[in-house]
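S.,

As promised, the pyridoxal-5'-phosphate run. Input:
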Amino acid sequence: MDNKFDVNEEGYYGEFGGAYVPEILYANVETLRKTYKTILQAPAFQKEYNELLSDYVGRPTPLYFARRLSEKYDCKIYLKREDLNHTGAHKINNTIGQILLARRMGKTRIIAETGAGQHGVATATVCALMNMECVVYMGKTDVERQHLNVQKMEMLGAKVVPVTSGNQTLKDATNEAIRDWCCHPANTHYIIGSTVGPHPYPDLVARLQSVISKEIKKQIIEKEGRDYPDYLVACVGGGSNAGGTIYEYLDDPRVKIVLAEAAGKGVDSGESAATIQLGRTGIIHGAKTLLMQDADGQIQEPYSISAGLDYPGIGPMHANMVRQGRSEVLAIDDNEALAAAMELTRLEGIIPALESAHALGIFGKKKFKKEDIIVLCLSGRGDKDMETYINYELQITNYNL
Ligand SMILES: Cc1ncc(COP(=O)(O)O)c(C=O)c1O
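Predicted complex:
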């Protein structure tokens, strides 16, 4: 273990994490645990992974100084442009790595869960690239609100299975993916899309996303003459874009971390996905973490306008960092996120994903000093959310900067 915020040998981040899996999956998870670091660190893997990141995904993504946004909030704001990746979000950093891992483990079939559809599209994309069978589970609510991504996955050759249990969102899609994995443990690799799930998934996904902070470290030297910002900002669903953004700075006390979670219709409205503020310790999808649950320990159905943040848990890495006081969390509601998306669009000419708009929402809530250097992970682009934005048209029409 490199530092106190990293995972330990037993798969825990402080009190959170672990691998709580059904017996049928024990062998799969154990094999993954024993082999993932060796495979990831092998020079041949690194070469193939890095070549694909640069030539196929389009990395490094720019670190863009957002001049007009900075003027408005009177501080220095840089955007890490993960929206410019192939397929439109950070998710592909992880799926490229995991498909290479799956091939090296001799797997022939890939399954995934998806909320916003970005992870589903990124998985379907790498399966097309590597000629592997692909099945994506997606809640029916999300199939409807992100249907452009469903059409993309199908065009890429994936089978999209709409899930009708629970409130038909990300949690329910993940349940079904785990069920599928239990039925096909021998030939199937489950590409989890965030820093969630049983150990070693949170660490595996964080490592594959750490390319984001590795690039920030180099790019901020060119822009500001030092290799760290004062603040790192990211939205958290399960925590993968946030995990990648902070990975190189986990225990660097010069860098403050601000996470944005989805308050939905308000933290106390009963309709939110503000897991960190509302959650208590529990187990979801194989990990002990903060979890929204009722008095009897039943998981509470989350709600957010943003499909990618509509999840009742949070990666164990983030649960621990918040518990230790390392990260600060702000809850951004639907309207604040929509307003922040409009603001970025009109000030910078960039239409962000609704998830990323939650990260942008922090500027309306937190005051920074003029000299503060802030790097915000713009995790994805807004194409998939156009319908939601258009339905918000009244406010778009009346929008005045
Ligand atoms: C663009 C975008 N940003 C953020 C997220 C949230 O996921 P994570 O917390 O794993 O980064 C998603 C999830 O679908 C997404 O599509």
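The chain has a mean pLDDT of 96. Residues 124 and 156 are 6 Å apart (CA to CA).

- D.
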